[in-house]
Amino acid sequence: MTRTTTAPEPPLTDRQREVVALIAAGCSNDEVGHSLGISARTAKAHSDALRLKLGVARRRQIPAAYRLLTGEDPYVPPLVRLHPPGSR
Hints:
Arc Repressor Mutant, subunit A, 4 helices
């Protein structure tokens, strides 16, 4: 008897993590594309791949599924640039 096992899903790529963070921030595919320098269609393809990889039906479920999978908060707000002392 031959036993078949499925290979574990590969971890998320750096680009997919970037897309997750932008989705968590509320960005549309157009905004994700603009932010990453890719087309909105490519951003949608990343979103579709993430939905399949994370096992969710809707794009808006991606951040929560990512959090459950990794234990990490997918949204990390951009750092606020502070003026160094004496630069004003």
